[in-house]
Structures are given as C-alpha cells and as structure tokens.
Amino acid sequence: MTELKFDLIEASSVTEWHDTADVVVIGCGVAGACAAIEAGDLGADVVIIERASGGGGASATSAGIFYLGGGTPVQQAAGFEDSAENMYRFLMTSTLAPDPQIVKRFCDDSLAHFHWLEAQGVPFERSYYEDKTVIPPGNYCLCSTGNEHGWPYREVATPVPRGHKVAGGDLEAGSVAMKHLIERCEQLNVRTRFDHRVISLVKDSADNIVGVSAVSFGEQMYIRARGGVIISAGGFSFNPDMVANYAPQLPSSAVALGIPNNDGDAIGLGISAGAALSAMNGVIATASFYPPGKLIKGIVVNRSGRRFVNEDAYHGRTADFLMGQADASAFLILDAETFEYSENPELNNNLIDGWETIEDMEAALKLPAGSLVDTLNEYNRFASDGEDPLFHKNNKWVQPLDKPPYAAFDISYDKLSYMFLTLGGVKADCEAQVINQHGTPISGLYAAGACVPTVPQDGKGYASGLSLGPGSYYGRIAGRNAASAIQN
Ligand SMILES: Cc1cc2nc3c(=O)[nH]c(=O)nc-3n(C[C@H](O)[C@H](O)[C@H](O)COP(=O)(O)OP(=O)(O)OC[C@H]3O[C@@H](n4cnc5c(N)ncnc54)[C@H](O)[C@@H]3O)c2cc1C
Hints:
Elements lengths: L7 E3 L8 E8 L3 H12 L4 E4 L15 E3 L5 H5 L6 H11 L5 H9 L1 H10 L22 E2 L9 H4 L6 E3 L7 H15 L3 E3 L3 E7 L5 E8 L2 E13 L8 H7 L8 E2 L8 H8 L4 E2 L4 E4 L12 E4 L12 H8 L7 E5 L10 H4 L2 E5 L2 H7 L6 H13 L22 E5 L8 E4 L2 E2 L6 E3 L5 E7 L20 H20 L1
Parallel strand pairs: 1-8, 2-3, 2-10, 3-7, 10-21, 11-18
Antiparallel strand pairs: 4-6, 5-6, 8-9, 9-10, 12-19, 13-18, 14-15, 15-17, 16-17, 20-21
The site of flavin-adenine dinucleotide has 40 residues, from helix 1, strand 8 and helix 14.
C-alpha cells in the first residue's frame, strides 16, 4: 500500500455542500473525541466524520494508560510529589527534539487535564502498582511507564510514576475511556457520520481550510466547516510502504499495532494542504522481556557479546537500541540466581539453553571468542559493589551474574513478535494548528493524536501513556481553537 495521494479541492469547485458544521473532526479516536467534547462544550455544532462503522479507533483497543503528572490525586494518594516543572524537566530531557512550548503546555495543564478526564467520566482508581510492569494488572492505576528512574533522567528530574491506567477494562482499559468519551460526545449532541472516509480537504481562495470531502458507500459528499477542520485520523502503522519508506530502521519482522485504518490518511490529508512533516522515522516498538522485574538483573548483549543498553530501560527504549544492533539481534543473559521465566510466554519459547560455564555459553551462542567472558567479568567486577559505571543501571537491579548454571533467552526481532506504532506525522504547534513548510499555521486546519508528533518522537524517549496523554490534551486544544474561530 503506497502513500495515498489526496487532492486539495477548491471551494469554488464545490457545487453542493451536503452538510455544514462549526467544527469538522476527522476520526473518532481519543484525539477526535476530546476535540469534539471541547468544541461541543463551547457550544459549537460539531460533526465527527469517521471511516469505521463506529467510534473508538486504536484508542479503544489500547491499554488505557494516560501519561499525566504534576501532582495528580492518584500520585498524591500513592505518596508521590510531582510538579509541572519536574515533569517538564523529565520530558524535555527524554524527548528527541522537544518543542518546549508543546511540552510545557502539556505539563502545566496535566493536573487540570486529569480532572477534566475524570469529569468526562473516565475512571482512575487511587492505587499504585509498584513492580516493574508493561501494563498494570486489573484496576491498578498509577505505575512507572517510562525511563524516569533510568540514567541520565533520574539525575535531571525526581523520578515519579506518571502512567495512569483507566479502571475497569484491564488490558483493554482504552475501551472504557472511549466509551465514556463517546457518551459525553452524545450528551453534547456531537453529530457523527460513520462509514465516511475523508478523502480531501477543501480550501477557499484565501487558502483557508473550509471543509472536507468524504466518501460513504461510493457516494462522495462535501461537508463545510465554519470554524475549522481537525485531523485526528491516527498514525500510519498499517501502511507498510509508508513505514518502510519513512522508518527504514524498523526490522521488517515487526508487527503493526492498532487498527487497519491507521494507514496514513491523516498524513496524506495534511500533505495535500502543504503541512510540514515531523519525526516521520519515529516508532515505538516493543516485546518486553519483563515482567517479572527480576529479569532486569540479567544483562542484554548483542552478537558481539557486548551490552548496549541499561537493562532497566523502558521496554520501548531497549527495543529501539536493539534495532540498531547487527541483525537486530540480542540475548538476555542470566545466572542461576536471576533466572526466572518471563510473563511473556513467547519469550519463554526462546530460552536457548543452560550452561555450566560462560565459555560454553559464549561458544553455543556463537559470540566472538572471549567477548562474553570479558563483558561478564567487567560487569561482575562493579556489580559486586552494586554499580554499573558503563550503562548506569539502577543499583536496585545490579547484582553479579556468577552463579552457574547460566541461561540465555533470544530476544532478537526475528525471534519475538515486536509490535510497533508510528509516532511521526504532520507538524502542529502548541495551539494544535497545522504548520506549513514555511513554518506558518495553515488557517482553519488543526491536528492532534497519533498523526502529530507532539511529545514522544522516538522509542528511546517514549513512555507508555505518551500517546493517549498528549493526544487527548491536544485534541482538546484543537477543539477549543476551532470552536473559538467561529465565535471570532
Ligand atoms: C494494543 C494497543 C495498546 C496501546 N496502549 C496504549 C496506552 O496504554 N497508552 C498510550 O498512550 N497509548 C497506547 N497505545 C497507542 C494509542 O492507543 C494510540 O496512539 C492512540 O489511541 C491514537 O489515538 P488517535 O485518536 O490519534 O487515533 P485512533 O484512536 O486510531 O483514531 C483515529 C480514527 O480515525 C479514523 N480514520 C482514519 N482515516 C480516516 C479517514 N480518512 N476519514 C475518517 N476517519 C478516519 C479511524 O478509523 C479511527 O477511528 C496503544 C495502542 C495499541 C494498538
């Protein structure tokens, strides 16, 4: 599937507007729903154009973790002190190429955004899951979902957990969030046109975006927007050609996460209007080897027998470093004291073997002679003092690996199902206005969600919740600004 070409239609060529709204929202995932609620709350007449037969998008299939901080009631209940400034320092350091205004606004308003989500009915339990995890089980809410405790971030900002998982949906808590957000849209009389795929934006003679063209069951129609059009149609994980083109570093064995409609329409529509693109090579890939956290006490080595990442990194960061290793290939090395089976059953199928000596393991893994012996000798020398001067793994996870038998799991991309999401898309500013190639806002066009790289831009800087958090927040900004444009 190649990158789709979308035409930009001249309003003067539209012979009939089939519908008119103050705000036209493209896509009904978390960003679109939040945009619609915010605009609806301001009294705007809003229509959501959604290609699927119902709302939800990838957001409804997600784990429902929102990255929020600044001292939320859940953080407080768990005894954590956080501030917008602390959150900002962390995100500015961990994000690849942060836009300070975008990050600052998200952090400054994060606490208020938490309250707003609760006010829409999205439930968050006052509970904290302490163990290292990918998705906290059951209704547990707060958990560490990023690299806050990792080096160098823990030296820049006080590490606190900011992953807030919605209660009531366990592994698919995103469906609970979307149920409440869509119900809220209904209360506000937000109109929906399901089974409508937006295929073009419409502009007037002054280059303002004034509407869209959509196709529904073969019938093409035009929908006019008085205040603005919001693109919130998701990323492009399900467009293999775009992924290969923009993110060639991603091993081809990686499997797309999300829904088939995340195939790049949002980006194609943005391009047609002259939008600049940003962070298009950004992906978050993952096949976590933990939980249990105990496995983090092992070391990860590449085909040269060398470490390349602090093993306590967020699983997406580890996966990002791993894709840069030869053959995107690596082993998790454990000794008798650190060995445990993973909660990822696929990983357990990749237990290679156990060996009495490191030399035997090195030979069996076909690593260069002496490489693994050297790596473990060096690691153990410092680990006996709880230190890891090379990669600064937190001393909580550092202990010598010197109790035979030793074991290795293959964590290579071609051995595990690494799943990925795209992070790149159209460039937007902190007002969620789409920016053109000259750095100027495109009048009447806003964007939010997975089609906009707001905060996270690569897997090394990602934390779970950094899609739903900024996506929902900047969706609101887009909705507010598009609705205000009509009032003005
Ligand atoms: C299994 C899974 C777990 C995840 N867990 C988390 C998590 O816990 N925390 C987190 O932050 N992120 C998570 N993510 C990522 C996150 O869910 C997405 O990045 C986010 O939901 C994207 O929201 P969105 O509103 O931008 O897009 P979507 O929710 O995908 O919504 C976009 C909508 O646009 C529609 N659309 C597409 N093209 C068109 C068109 N041309 N015309 C009209 N409509 C169109 C689509 O049908 C879709 O409904 C997860 C993702 C997956 C798949």
